[in-house]
Amino acid sequence: MLAGYNFAYLDEHTKRMIRRSILKAVAIPGYQVPFASREMPLPYGWGTGGIQLTAGIIGRSDVLKVIDQGADDTTNAVSIRRFFARTAGVATTERTAQATIIQTRHRIPETPLKAGQIVVFQVPIPEPLRWLEPRESETRVMHALGDYGGLHVKFYEDIVRHGRIVTTYDYPVLVNDRYVMRPSPIPKFDNPKLDMNPALLLFGAGREKRIYAVPPHTRVKSLDFEDHPFTVERWDRPCALCGAPDSFLDEIITDDRGTRMFVCSDTEYCRGRSAAKAGE
Amino acid sequence: MSAPPGLDDAPLLSARGVTVTYGRRTGCRDVSFDLWPGEVLGIVGESGSGKTSLLGALSARLHPAAGSVRYRDRTGRVADVYRLTEPERRALVRTEWGVVRQNPRDGLRLNVSAGANIGEPLMAIGARHYGAIRAQAADWLERVEIAADRIDDPPAAFSGGMQQRLQIARNLVTGPRLVFMDEPTGSLDVSVQARLLDLLRRLVADLGLAAVIVTHDLAVARLLAHRLMVMQGGEVVETGLTDQVLDDPQHPYTQLLVASILQV
A167 to chain B, minimum CA–CA distance in Å? Predict the structure, then answer.
């Protein structure tokens, strides 16, 4: 562990403050709780909200997994994982099933989550009403009154222009039939995983200084029209590496003549499936 | 204009002693009146006479310093507008009222299509069926004489007169019983004004709407209003039937106002 720093980098008072905000967020699913976000040793937009949440909840016995766009081996994931390995001395893993805390950017792992796990989402813009109403004072009133009709204007415009709802990521959801929430920039493919998930889902926005949460087994419904119901992305082929028919695929260009392949965005899931196949 | 149609036995809107202040300045002072179902009330007066302050206080947008505004909704329940809770007040404004602003740019969402502008109030009160919302938007475009093929154009691409008609459609789509209009023809040229006035007159008569119309234009008042309220310096100086006020003004200020109309 790094000498001269407190366990998990943040001082204990800050962690307490963050935990208090988390408790409130869990008590009011989907409600954005303001918190005194600290300067972190990485730039805004790189996961300062998520990293503070993780620092607030991590203990010596925790096992940490960090993913970025589904991958365990991208720069952001590697550096945040190493950050906690150095400042907290905790065990890290790439295996979803073994992790107790999963900090993520842009994906929810394909492997189903279990009770007792905590997923920490990095959130750039927490306010689902922001494009509709620039005033924070007014968006708070709108949340308080459940005044969400205007959100459908964007869907209406989508259908007018494209024949369907084209919002594909950060797709707004109604949590516990009460608060509308931005699920962070996960693809809408992952939205159904939010619903009744046995794990605790925590969302942290460092720059915007907001924490919110979806407690285990909470109803999460994606907004839609009755005659244009919510649907998720589909591909006409399975993963080229592991053959998974049901996972979120990334398009990878393999040469400069336009050859491409579609592979699982969740690298750990893909590797696990390939290894299992090889072992057969 | 003809006598107000089908007067009910109880007023729709009752204002009592409505006073609006801005710090130590007064917007309007001690205004009281009753508005009956299906009646069109014109509020006339020069700039700064308190017309818009009064309209703001009547339409739940400007909290009055004193006085009360009571409204009888379609179920017959009478509510003091400023004693309602915020959600109740918003629900009332959305389902029972419409507010047409002088500048259509204040009352429209310019970056989304005309259809979405008409559909938004429907979505705000819970409509969640795209096809039904769109059908109603198309129907209302036709009723305000905008070509159906403009439904997907943004209002920014519309002329001033079309924008104003679109704003009227957006306000009437929820089937309000009372519409507040602040200088609805203010920013339009004369021929476009005439067309809009015809349209307003027809809609108000067809739908049996009650309306409160603020205007400085006595011709507009003559065409639309059953009854007039003349304001000066924040106070009501004369009220009466439109023809009576305009043809036989009693108060010196009203006489001045009527006399200042240019005769062509």
Answer: 16
DSSP-assigned states of every residue in B64-96: -SEEEEEEE-TTS-EEEGGGS-HHHHHHHHHHH
Best of A133, A143, A147, A156 to mutate (most B CBs within 10 Å, chain B) = A156
What does the alpha-carbon distance between residue A54 and residue A200 come to, in Å, rounded to a whole number?
A: 13
Annotated active-site residue A30? The verdict is: yes
Question: Would you say B225 and B54 are in contact if contact means Cβ atoms under 8 Å apart?
Answer: no
Q: Would you call A84 helix, strand, or coil by DSSP?
A: helix
Structure tokens that stand for A84 in this block? 């906690």
Pick B13-107+176-259's CATH classification: 3.20.20.370, 3.40.50.620, 3.40.50.300, 3.40.1410.10: 3.40.50.300
CB–CB of B124 and A145 under 8 A?
no
Q: What proportion of chain A, given as a percentage, has pLDDT over 70?
A: 100
Cα distances from A77 to residues A45, A64, A121, in angstroms, run 13, 11, 12
Exposure b/e, A68-90, CB count within 10 A at least 16 = b: bbbbbeeebbeebbebbeebbeb
State the average pLDDT over residues A238-253: 94
Measured between CA atoms, how close is A149 to chain B, in angstroms? 4
pLDDT computed for residue B8 by the predictor: 54
**Nearest-5° Cα angle at A241, A239 to A247:** 30
What is the pLDDT at residue B2? 46
Q: Determine the distance in angstroms separating the CA of B131 from the nearest CA of chain A, rounded to an integer.
A: 7
| A239 is known as an active-site residue | yes
Judged by CB atoms closer than 8 Å, whether chains meet at B123 and A161 is answered as no
Residue-wise pLDDT for A52-107, tens only, equals 999 999 999 999 999 999 999 999 999 999 999 999 999 999 999 999 999 999 99
Q: Is A116 a known active-site residue?
A: no
Below-70 pLDDT ranges, chain B: 1-8, 263-264
Q: What is the ipTM of this complex?
A: 0.84
Q: Please state, as a whole number, how many other Cβ atoms lie within 10 Å of the Cβ of residue A185.
A: 18
Per-state percent for chain A, helix, strand, coil, to nearest 5: 30, 20, 50
Enclosing H/E stretch for B140: helix B130-143
Q: How many CB atoms lie within 10 A of CB A253?
A: 10
A148 to chain B: closest CA residue:
B124
Distance set, CA B183 to CA A9, A127, B39, B129 (Å): 62, 36, 18, 34
Kindly report the number of other CB atoms within 10 A of residue B148's CB atom: 11
Q: What is the rounded CA–CA span in Å between residue A99 and residue A111?
A: 11
